[in-house]
Amino acid sequence: DTKIPWWKTATGYQIYPRSFADSNGDGIGDLPGIISKLDHLADLGVGFIWLCPIYASPMRDNGYDIADYYDIAPEFGTLEDFDRLVAEARARGIRIVMDLVVNHCSSDHEWFRKACETRDCPEHDYFYWRDAQPDGSPPDDQRACFGGSAWQWVETVGRYCYCHFGPQQPDLNWHNPALRQTIYEMMNWWLDRGIGGFRMDVIELVGKDIDARHYYEGPDMHRFIQEMHQACLAGRDVMTVGESWSVTPKTALDYCGRDRAELDMVFGFNHIQAAWDPAKGRFGPNLFDLRRHKAILADWQYALADDGWNSLYLSNHDLPRPVSHYACDGEHRVRSAKMLATVTYLMKGTAFVFQGEEIGMTNVRFERLDQFRDIETLGQWTEQGAQGVSLDDFIAGANANARDHARTPMQWTAEPGAGFSGAEPWMMLNPNHVDINAARDRANPEGVFEWYRKLIALRRSESLVWGGAFELLLPNHPALVAYLRTEGARRMLVMGSYSGDEVHLSAADLPLGDWQPVLANADGVNAPGGDMTVPPYFAGVWIEEG
Ligand code: TEU
Ligand code: CA
User: Fold this and answer.
1) Partners of 232 in the beta sheet?
2) In this structure, which residue's CA is closest to atom 3 in ligand 1?
3) What separation in Å is there between the alpha carbon of 81 and the centre of ligand 2?
4) Domain for residue 315, yes or no?
């Protein structure tokens, strides 16, 4: 079917540039490093790269604080390197999707510098300013994501400025029409350079009503996204995916329904947040509940069955490593990695693989505060430590969920430096790179990489994957995820076990069919519809030709 847009059958690969490959021995990954690894991605079969921010930035939040939207951070390279990346990737059939961070910029951006000099310049209104209360305190008690008050006092203009994330990430005032036009111009400049689209950072935060303290999915969000679509996206063959921590299956089509002219997809986080303590967020993990997890994912599948489109992911640069988080990162690591990818990426939607996932990289065992680098981890320790949380408890929470896990350097080889860099990396390497690395995994036909390669090929070749209707099976089973994908008379059955023990199924548990095996990460397992003994972390895929 030629009407299917390229990004529906493609698999994306997310790169966190700082931690991917260092070409010049300064301990920091860079664009030439990425170019040198493009064959790894071409072998994997990916159709696009989501590149985390590479713009000029003081890097307080590793690039999610942009000082110049038209330039590349010097430690990452130059615009020439970027153009070369786009061209070299295209030569391998890979598009470059950029991270668009426009809810906020860096306090080093010249807009903010001007805005702080005087109230009487156009840039002053590019930010949200409010007066102090009579006693000098901030307008309200809103806390910033990375700790402290969300309000930063700027003495030169005698006002507080709203900063949702960190004190050096002032929020941009989307209610200023000139600012919006400036952003659209910048987006068009990158699109004209030949990029494949945008991943839009916290797009749910544009259009907020600061005074009503209505931040997420605020009153003007959809109006602004529609305007952006008209100004930049309409008529271009690009893909867009908006990050939204607040979107639910009920509101998803408001962003990506076909009559909306907004975005192609959203990244939702309902299933991630279900495993967090509502008050403590990621640093207060709750027990993982597979029944709840798969119910949420199934709700998303059903909500976007006929309109809109799902994004499918196991991790990203803000989340722990999936084998450690959901399954087993010890004895059954390889099998776990295959199982998680199988049940996630054969749902209906576009798959996003995060760097290192394709070789089954794991969490780190952090022991000391000085091993963390993330502004969120360090800021939250300041905040929670002051509230009486002990360092041991905090480190336990951070070991479960800190963003740092995703950011340890990519493990290419067993050598010192892991083939990532010849120098001391900007953040610690996981010591297990001696065993877990791309060179070793790729040399093994039973490795994780080879499984991902097959799965990604199946996503491209099998119309059941992009077109088949989804139906969750065994919704109440505590250890198995199973579902059907159906298109006409053909069916695909996907099953994965999240258990470290054997699981027994009887004949009535799964539909009987003429099931032909397509993929299995362990041998000797019966076809569905009969008695089955399911080995630990098993994954299987069967197709019935009908
Ligand atoms: O993340 C949004 C975001 O809100 C979180 O990842 C946040 O850490 C979490 O909700 C609270 O625990 C995006 C980017 O993905 C992230 O890397 C940036 O730090 C953030 O926006 C600010 O740009
Ligand atoms: Ca470098």
Assistant:
1) none
2) 202
3) 13
4) yes
At 297-350, the pLDDT tens digits run 999 999 999 999 999 999 999 999 999 999 999 999 999 999 999 999 999 999
Counting the structural domains of the chain, the total is 3
Range of the domain at 498: 468-544
Q: What pLDDT, on the 0 to 100 scale, is given for residue 2?
A: 57
Q: Which long-range contacts (CB under 8 A, 24 or more apart) does 82-86 make?
A: 82/31, 82/54, 82/193, 83/193, 84/31, 84/35, 85/31, 85/34, 85/35, 86/193, 86/194, 86/195
Q: Is 110 one of the catalytic residues?
A: no
Please give the angle made by the CA atoms of 112, 123 and 119, to the nearest 5 degrees: 90
Structure tokens given for 89: 């990737």
Does residue 498 form part of some domain? yes
What pLDDT, in 10s, does the model give residues 88-108? 999 999 999 999 999 999 999
Residue 22 is among the residues annotated as catalytic for this protein: no
Q: Contact 98/195 with Cβ under 8 angstroms?
A: yes
Ligand 2 centroid–CA 100 distance in Å is: 23
What 3-state class would DSSP assign to 269? coil
Q: Please identify every stretch of the chain with a pLDDT value under 50, giving residue numbers as ranges.
A: 1
The residue assigned the tokens 């000085």 is 370
